[in-house]
C-alpha cells in the first residue's frame, strides 16, 4: 500500500542566549500553529530538567498551553519520564488534558531521568529508582487510565477510563521490546542516539503482539531534519545543532547559537566525531535532498511516521524548514503498514 508519510514535531522549547522563557514558549506555540496548517499530525514536547537552554520541564503545562492555542493537531509528550512520577499523578494530569481536549492528547513515555544524577535524585528521592521498574510503573499507569474495576479503592479522577493513547520511547532495544510485548506504538530517538535504530526497528516489528489498543505495529522515528533553499544553506543551518551538541558534551548551557560558516576551529577531532555520531541520522539539504533522505529512512526502517526535530537560531528559518519538509514528504509516496 502506498500512502503519504505522516510527519510530526518534537519540540524542546529552546532558548537563545539571554532570551526569556516566555519568549521561547511563544515561538513554540507559533510553530505548532504553523505545522498544524501544514498537515503535521502531532506536536510533542519532551521532559527535561535542569538544562540551561531548554524550558520544557513542566511538560504537562506546556501541552495544555499548546493545545489551547491550536485546533486539531494532536499534542502530547515525547515524553514524560515515568520513573520521575507517581503513575497516579500522570494519569490525573493526562486524564484532565484529555477531558479538556478530547481525542487530541498523546502520552509518550520514557524511562530516562531527563537530567543529571543530582536532579534525578531530587525528582525520585530514591537512589534505587534506576528505571528497571519501568514495566511495573507502566502497568500501574495503564491501570489508572483503564476502565474502573469493581471494588477499586484508588481511582484516577479525571483519568480513569480515559484510555489516553500511550507510546513508548527509547534509544535502544529495551523499550522496543516492551512496546512490542504490550502492543503499543514505539518511537525511536534517532535525533540524538541513532546507533541502534535499525536493530530496534526490526526487533519491534518482529516481536509485536496485537493488543486491544493496536492491531499492528506503529513505528515512529525521531530524526533531525533541516531543509532550506539549497544544500549549502541547510548545511549552514546545521551548525546551530552541531554547536548545541558540542556544548552538551562539554557540559555547557545548550542555548541556541547563531549558525557559522564553518565549525573548523570550534571543536577538536574527538569532539567532531562525537557530535557527528549524535547527528548521524540527520537529513539536511534542499527539498529534493530531504525527499530522498526521508525515502531512504522509511525504506531502511519501515517507519510509519517521522517525528521531525528542526532546531535553528532564527525562527523564520525553522518555519521555512518545517514547511519545506512537509512539501518534500507530500511529493513522495512510501510503502506503509499504517491503517
Structural description of this entry:
- Helix 10 packs across helix 11.
- The model has no long low-confidence stretch (mean pLDDT 93).
- 42% of the residues lie in helices and 16% in strands.
- The strands form two sheets. An eight-stranded parallel β-barrel has the order 2-3-4-5-6-7-8-10, surrounded by eight helices. A two-stranded antiparallel sheet has the order 1-11.
- It is of the alpha/beta class and 339 residues long.
- The chain has a single domain, classed as Alpha-Beta Barrel (TIM Barrel).
- The chain has helices at residues 21-37, 59-69, 87-100, 117-124, 134-145, 173-182, 197-207, 231-249, 269-278, 287-301, 315-330, and strands at residues 2-3, 6-11, 42-45, 74-81, 105-110, 166-170, 186-189, 219-227, 283-285, 305-309, 334-335.
- The chain is globular.
What is the fold's blueprint, element by element?
Blueprint: E1 2-3, E2 6-11, H1 21-37, E3 42-45, H2 59-69, E4 74-81, H3 87-100, E5 105-110, H4 117-124, H5 134-145, E6 166-170, H6 173-182, E7 186-189, H7 197-207, E8 219-227, H8 231-249, H9 269-278, E9 283-285, H10 287-301, E10 305-309, H11 315-330, E11 334-335
Parallel strand pairs: 2-3, 2-10, 3-4, 4-5, 5-6, 6-7, 7-8, 8-9, 8-10
Antiparallel strand pairs: 1-11
Helix pairs in contact: 1-2, 1-11, 3-5, 6-7, 8-9, 10-11
Order of helices and strands: EEHEHEHEHHEHEHEHHEHEHE
Largest sheet entry: 8 strands, parallel, barrel
Q: Could you say how many structural domains there are in total?
A: 1
Strand content: 15-25%
The CATH homologous superfamily is termed Luciferase-like domain
Spatial shape: globular
Sheet with most strands: strand arrangement: 2-3-4-5-6-7-8-10
Overall average pLDDT? 93
